[in-house]
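Entry: TBC1 domain family member 30
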Amino acid sequence: CTEEEEVAAGGDRASRGRPPRSDSLDSSTETSGSDVFLGGRGVGDSRVLQELRERPSLRLQMQYLRRKDSGELKTILRELKYRIGIQSAKLLRQLKQKDRLLHKVQKNCDIVTACLQAVSQK
């Protein structure tokens, strides 16, 4: 489960009787590109974006958008901002996890170096 799905389901992993994973500091950073909309976003909003994606060229995308009225364009803009926000949050979580994991690797390297120095003949 992603962090958002856990919150939407009414709790975290520990509150449902499952122990937290000890091998990862933040296992909620795993993400995929095909996420379920959160916050009540419906199929109608994503349908327009799907239709836009199906247009093979920028010219056809522009023609498609020109046929939309201002209300539909505002809805598309709102959906794009929403998706950008989600992807930004995911990226931020992944960058933080990368930082934590790099720190953990460096700490382990320091331990190995200390052990090697302790047993060396010098």
